[in-house]
Write a structure and sequence with these properties.
Layout (H helix, E strand, L loop, with lengths): L12 H12 L8 H13 L2 H11 L4 H8 E4 L2 E4 L5 H16 L4 H8 L6 H25 L45 H4 L3 H32 L28 H21 L4 H20 L2 H16 L4 H17 L8
Antiparallel strand pairs: 1-2
Helix pairs in contact: 1-2, 1-7, 2-5, 2-9, 3-5, 5-7, 10-11, 10-13, 11-12, 12-13
Amino acid sequence: MSDISKYTVGGRAPIEKFARLCEEMKNAKFIVAEEKIRELLITVATSAALKEIVSNAAKGFDMNAAFAASRIKAGKRYSILPPVRRKDIIAYAMHLLYAFDIGTPLQDFLEEYYFSANGINFSFTLFVSSIVAPLGRAVLAEAEEMTIEEPAEEPIEQPEEPTEEPVEEPVEEPVEPEEPKKEESEETDEEDDEYDELDALEALYAELDEEDEEEDEDLDEEEDDEDEEEPDEPEDEDDEPMFAAKTEASSGLNLTEEQKTALIKRLGDIFNAAGKSGRATNAELNGIYRAAAELTDRITEQNLSGISESADKFAAVVRGSGAAAILIPDLDEFYNALSSCGIKASEG
């Protein structure tokens, strides 16, 4: 396999291109889905910074466990609730795109997890909105915390001024006819140095596969150690909320970590209840998820006006869903929890 380093480029330009492609995919039709996915993967494979971001996110990430946890029962079908943590959504989304590129049928996936009576194009838009667009935003956020060197500009060489030399008059000599030489087929070095996108993409896939193999080896070693040592106490599943929050600067409130965790966990409970009820459509579940994710960010930022506004949006989405009758008691409890933290919202 060729050395991938000769295909990669530096700087932030590929990162901005990648984020733009993720957003633009929301307007694409399903018929060009494979082409758009391949374009995203090639952009990652040929960017040093993007490769670093994806590689860091994939370390220790268990895709099988993450995918199993993301499948939510919605009536007779399943829907997908992707991870919210920044590095998790990067690793999760990249594994999915990689799988679609090497042969997993995208249409079957969309019909199973993003089914819509409005057709396959609408299903593809739902998929992009819930997984691909958040991937682009997460990559941009990770890049902001990195030091990325821009490629140095090569100096332009000035042509040397020709020096005048005395010109000797040519002496005519008899020219003997030469025997014709056979033309040989020459292979130029240009083919070796040509920008080979497929080799770069193959190298990226190999790195992702190596991450998975290393992770499997680590899991096997941990299982062997557990047989010899006493089992640790089981972790409390409630310690980590479904809508995990990112760290942001405070802007008005002074919520404790326990209060933030409790509020975010209630959002996850409401979403789970909507999925288990079987009364909310996939589109309604997707709307509840996006509203809960936005509200999670506002709670983490401790932005009082932002929390109130996002909470009212969340309540409107919940009340407009087919599972509203079941979710209203949980929604009221969430508003009571907001009130106990000193946060007032109009719905409350």
